[in-house]
Structures are given as C-alpha cells and as structure tokens.
Amino acid sequence: MPTGDPALDTAVARAQDGDETAFAAVYRLVHPGLLGYLRGIAGEEAEDIAAAAWREIARELPRFRGDGRGFRGWTAGIARRHALGRPRRSGASARPPGHSPEALVARLPRAQAEAVLLRHAVRLEEPAVARVMRRPRPVVRVLARRGLRSLARLLGTDEVTHDVARTLGEPG
Amino acid sequence: MSTDRNTPEADGTTDLDDAWALERTAERIGEALRRRPVDDAAEQAAVAAFRSARAAGGRAPRTRRGDDWRPRTQRHRWVRSGAVALVTSALLGGIAFASIRVADTQRHDTADPGTSHSTHRPPADPPREQSPPAGPGTAPTEPRQRPGTAKDVAAHCRAYEHIKDQGHALKSTAWQRLVRAAGGEQQVPVYCARFTGAAAEATPSPAGTNGNKNGNSGQGQVRPTQRHAEPTAKAKPSTGS
C-alpha cells in the first residue's frame, strides 16, 4: 500500500484551483484503479458508470477536502454510489469471459469483491475501505480476507501465485 | 456470504505462507485490473465536464460531511482520549463508592471498634472540639465544616478498618476526605475512635438530623450547629483507656 502520493496531492490541489491540466493528471492517476473496481463489480457497464462518476467528480470537486489519498476514497465512494444505482446483472452473461481478473473477481459475493477491489485495485487503506463501504473495519477486514481466499481457491489452491502469474501474464 | 469450511489451508500449510500468498494474489489482481488501457475519449469527456463546471462558476459549494476526507488530526485524538479518560474516571469513582457502601453494610451489624488494635489508643493531639470556635477558615478546622455528618464519618471509619489494606480504595474521594479530616493517614484510627465509640455508645440521632439540615447549606466554618458535635466530644473519654 502506498503511504503517500505527492503527485496526486499536488494535482488535486491545483485542479481545485481550476487548473484543467491538473484535472487531466488527476484523471490519469485515479481512473485506472476506479475502473478496475467498477469492472470487478459491474462488468461491462463499468465504463458507463465511470463516465457518470467522473461527471459528478468534476462538478463536486470544489466541495472536496483532503489530500490525494483522501481523494481516492472520495472518488471511490462516488463511483460506488453510481454502481449501486444500477442493479447487478446476474448470470453467466454478465460475467466477463475466461480467466481474466475481472472474471475471477466477478465470481465472488459482492461485498467480498468490493472489499478486495477497493483495497487492491483502488489501493485504499482499510479505514477508507470501511468508510466507502459503510461497514465497520473488522467486517471489511474479514470480507477482504475471505475474498482473497476464495480467489485463491478459484485459481487452484496448491500453486496460487504461479497460477495467478500465468493467468495474469496473458491479459485478454 | 460464502463459508470457508473446506478451505485447504486448514489442513496444514502455515498461516504465514498462506497470508503471503493471498497478499501476492491480491497485488497481482489489483495490478492487472489497473493495467487496462485508458480510453482517451473518456478522459476528454471528464475534462470537458470539469471545464463546464468551472464555466458555470458561482460560489464555492458547501463541503458536506461525506466530502471531508482530511486525515484525523491531533485534535480529534485528544478529544477522543479525553472522553475515554472521563468515562474511565467516572467508572472507577462509581466502583470505589460502591465498595464503600458494600463494606459499610457488611460491617454495620457487627460494628465492633474493639477489634482493631489501634482503636483504643488515646488521641495524640488535643481534641479539636475544645479549640475556640471563632477561628476563621483555616485548614485544621476542616473536619468541623460538616458537623452533622458524624454518623457518616462513623460509617466510613468502620468501612476504613475493613478496607484500609487495599491501596486503590484509599484513593477515592471519600477516603481522602476522611484522611484529610483526621489530619493524616496515621491519625485516622485516633480520629475514628471518637466517632465509632460515640456511635456504639449512644445513637446521636438529634445531632445527625440537625446537622444534616444545616450542614448542607454551605461551607461556613463556624455555625450554631457546632454544638451538636458535642456528643462526639463527650464520647472521647469513654474511648480513652
């Protein structure tokens, strides 16, 4: 987990002052993690949800108070609200195909998937994950651990890391 | 919520290895999820939204609670630890008072001042009741501020005998008041001898009731009710050997 993010700190502060270039930098720093999270919980709708979330982020940015780390949590909360606004499509058709990371995470129960993704895709720290999910910290910790275990089981238990490496080595 | 009953890590692999492997799994999945190419059009749309929000301008909107992601400050921590300290001290105080009352009720029926070896020691210093009653508020006159509580003092004395070896109990306010009234921890048995002796000999009910009525009214050092403390003064010769 990164302890600090000076580049994002500066970019957020300058974007709040109205700097358009800084806002683009913020987008490039934050969007990948956000999109990873949304892909894991919303599948193919992730891009649409992300676009709606970014419109709100751009509009509400003057309200935000905090540094880069706080900004990741704040934006994750906005993205989550947009994702929850849409019903999660169930069934195999909603799942991304194959052994892509999205496909693996999509097979977890939603709360576990969220805990894992917020922690490891968005790279939030535990208190921030708890705040975004509106759950107590111990619950979030258990959810993340269970989610990881389930992932490990899905990947095959005896050679977890190797399997993941092989699976993730060939994206798409 | 899925259950992990049949997880293979229960069979013998160490938790540490397991945790490490899970952490690696998580890191790799997180990295893979973030590594997807960023759509330029999406970025342009976001920046356009930012530009139009700027153009709309207006006053800076109010920051709602959910928008404040500043880290917890030192001040928050102080407030929290202060609250914890307050609750703790209230709890401990309550326990101390409860222990006084329990000890008191236990001793009440079998109150016997003779059980203590030091109870019958004659008073080392001259009894304060005989000093001129006109002295303005100085520290030594403190025990006579509330003359009507003789009965209470007697009760505390009996409880004190019972509990004096338990150091923490002596820190409570009631004990400290007793010790202060006696003029030091060494003087407590002497001081108590007067009250417990009086209580055992005769019930000073008029002194108790009158004193309570008047004693609650303030911090005045000298008042007519002073005379009601006399039973305790009279009791003194009876306790001396």
Question: Please, could you describe this protein's structure?
Answer:
With 172 residues, chain A is an all-alpha fold. Chain A has a single domain, classed as Rna Polymerase Sigma Factor, Chain: A, CATH 1.10.1740. Chain A has helices spanning 6-16, 20-42, 46-60, 68-84, 101-106, 110-120, 126-133, 137-155, 160-169. In chain A, helix 2 packs antiparallel against helix 3 (46-60), helix 4 runs parallel beside helix 7 and helix 6 crosses helix 8 (137-155). Chain A is globular, with a radius of gyration of 16 Å. The model of chain A is unreliable at 157-161 (pLDDT under 50). Chain B is mostly helical and 241 residues long. Chain B contains 8 helices and no strands. Chain B has a domain at 91-124 and 139-216 and 223-239. The model of chain B is unreliable at 1-12, 114-120, 129-145 and 202-241 (pLDDT under 50). In chain B, helix 4 (150-163) crosses helix 6, helix 5 packs across helix 6 (188-201) and helix 6 (188-201) crosses helix 8 (230-239). Chain B: Keywords: Membrane, Transmembrane, Transmembrane helix. Chain B: The chain crosses the membrane at residues 78-100. Chain B: Residues 50-60, 208-220 have a biased composition (Low complexity). Chain B: Residues 50-74, 106-156, 200-241 are annotated as: Disordered.
What is the secondary structure topology, with strand pairs?
The complex is a heterodimer of chains A (172) and B (241).
Chain A: H1 6-16, H2 20-42, H3 46-60, H4 68-84, H5 101-106, H6 110-120, H7 126-133, H8 137-155, H9 160-169
Helix pairs in contact in A: 1-2, 2-3, 2-4, 2-6, 3-4, 4-7, 6-7, 6-8, 7-8
Chain B: H1 15-34, H2 40-56, H3 74-108, H4 150-163, H5 173-182, H6 188-201, H7 205-215, H8 230-239
- Determine the strand fraction of chain A and express it as a percent band: under 5%
- Radius of gyration of chain B, CA atoms, in whole angstroms: 35 Å
Shape of chain A: globular
Mind telling me the CATH class of chain A? Mainly Alpha
Number of strands of chain A: 0
User: What's the helical proportion of residues of chain B?
Assistant: 40-55%
Q: Can you count the helices of chain A?
A: 9
CATH architectural name of chain A: Orthogonal Bundle
